[in-house]
Amino acid sequence: MFTGLLIVLLPLVLGYLVPVHRASIMAWINRGVSASIYLILLLMGVSLAGLPDLGTQLSRMGGQALLLFVVISAFNLAALWWLSRRLRLDLGEKRVVDGAPTSKLAAMAGSLSLVGVVIAGLVIGLMLVGRWGTTPFELAEHLAEWVLYVLLALIGCQLRNSGMPLKQILLNRHGLFIAVTLAASSLAGGLAAAPMLGLDWNEGLAMASGFGWYSLSGILIGEHLGPALGGVAFFNDLTRELLAFVLIPLVMRRYAPLAIGYGGATSMDFTLPVIQQHGGVRCVPIAVVSGFILSLLSPPLILFLVAL
Question: Could you give phi then psi for residue 105, rounded to 5 degrees?
Answer without folding.
Answer: -65, -40
